[in-house]
Specification:
408 residues; 2 domains; mainly alpha
């Protein structure tokens, strides 16, 4: 079992715990499945709004952002795509948290297969917990709108509005509080389920407990975790870019330069990552500056497509290389996801120790075995029958032996 400090020092273990082949692989699979579903539904959202396929491709490539300026039904389709992404991320987060938890308890060989089974089995809890809060918030808002209709009544409506001002203010604060808890549940819910296997109600209870009992520790630990994630992703992204350049240099020794540059340039044409406009300007500048520093600005600003080298074979090669670029990007992002879920597992473990004085790493899983009495009860009956049969045979043998003696 890993010995923790049960304070902020444990958060820095997230980088080491997240840098694991099993956790990165699970995060990679989750991101890939989420990426495919989100991309398809997002394209449907834009196409349903009357935007041509080529225009969406030129703007976003494979990952469109939210459909600003499109009809309401396009937004509904995009929201479904976002929900798909979140659900897949939560389930993969449960699997990563389960592996991390077992590793902290001392089991270094906990299998990916078992973690995925556990995550799928408890997917209902991790998804429904925030959904219940969101539905409750929506119900309160609808009730507020219904009560607001009373203000249309002459004279009485104005008095009703004045009397209900204070209760309405209290309900508004409560709605904001529930929204905060829903965000907390999305952040740490997979770690709660991964460590405890809780149902929906217990997951909600732990989310409320975390934000009520340890709000500042939770916020501070999450900020530290984000710093660790950024450092890990920046370092891996740097080495991933240098590995691509190294491969280009090695191939250039054998492959003609014109052919190699044509394939790599057209492969870069297929790759484009768009920073959502909702992100602050400083984050946009940070991403742009980082990609310039590692020599990969084409991820944000892809080059134009060139005439393929050797016609169809060059075009297919460039397309496959473009897919490889996306897989490399997902691999780098997967490290950040693995660190994130492993770090939240540490955060929840520390917070439970602080608020409940309970070490989750010392809890053993309960195993239920069938009682021995239930298994051994039916066994004596055939034994009794056998004893009766042996007694009868013995009597017959003694009678046969005694018969000649009596005749004599």
């Amino acid at each position: 079992m890993t010995t923790l400090h049960f304070n902020y020092k444990d958060i820095f273990r997230a980088g080491r715990l997240g840098f694991s082949a099993k956790k990165i692989w699970i995060s990679f699979l989750g991101l890939l499945i989420a990426f495919i579903g989100y991309g398809i539904l997002s394209y449907i959202a834009y196409l349903s709004g009357g935007v041509e396929f080529g225009e969406v491709w030129d703007t976003f490539r494979l990952v469109p952002t939210y459909p600003s300026g499109l009809p309401w039904f396009s937004w509904i389709i995009w929201v479904v795509a976002l929900i798909w992404w979140i659900c897949v991320a939560l389930i993969s987060g449960v699997a990563v948290s389960k592996i991390t938890y077992e590793q902290l308890k001392g089991d270094e060989f906990y299998e990916i297969k078992e973690a995925l089974k556990f995550a799928l089995k408890h997917s209902k809890s991790v998804i429904l917990a925030p959904v219940v809060l969101i539905l409750f918030v929506i119900a309160l808002l609808v009730m507020g709108i219904i009560l607001a209709l009373i203000t249309w009544v002459p004279y009485f409506g104005q008095l009703f509005l004045a009397v209900m001002a204070v209760p309405a203010f209290a309900v508004s604060l409560f709605i904001l509080y529930l929204a905060v808890v829903a965000v907390v549940c999305l952040i740490i819910g997979p770690s709660i389920v991964g460590e405890t296997g809780n149902d929906t109600f217990d997951t909600l209870f732990e989310s409320f407990s975390v934000i009520n009992d340890q709000p500042w520790r939770f916020i501070g630990y999450e900020i530290l975790l984000k710093i660790v994630i950024v450092i890990g992703v920046v370092i891996l992204g740097f080495f991933a870019a240098k590995a691509i350049f190294l491969g280009h240099t090695v191939l250039g020794i054998v492959v003609p330069v014109d052919k190699l540059d044509n394939i790599f340039t057209n492969a870069a044409y297929y790759v484009k990552i768009t920073v959502p406009p909702i992100c602050p300007e400083w984050w946009n500048n940070f991403v742009t500056g980082y990609l310039d520093w590692i020599g990969m600005p084409n991820i944000l600003f892809p080059p134009d497509y060139m005439t393929a080298y050797e016609s169809w074979s060059g075009a297919i090669s460039s397309f496959i290389m473009g897919i490889t670029y996306y897989l490399i990007i997902l691999f780098v992002v997967s490290l950040g996801a693995a660190i994130y879920w492993a770090g939240n597992t540490l955060i929840f473990t520390v917070l439970v120790k602080k608020k409940d004085d309970k070490n989750l790493l010392e809890i053993k899983e309960e195993t239920f075995e069938e009682p021995e009495a239930a298994v051994s009860e039916p066994k004596p009956e055939p034994e009794k029958k056998e004893e009766k049969q042996t007694k009868k045979t013995r009597k017959k043998e003694t009678e046969k032996k005694s018969e000649p003696e009596t005749e004599n």
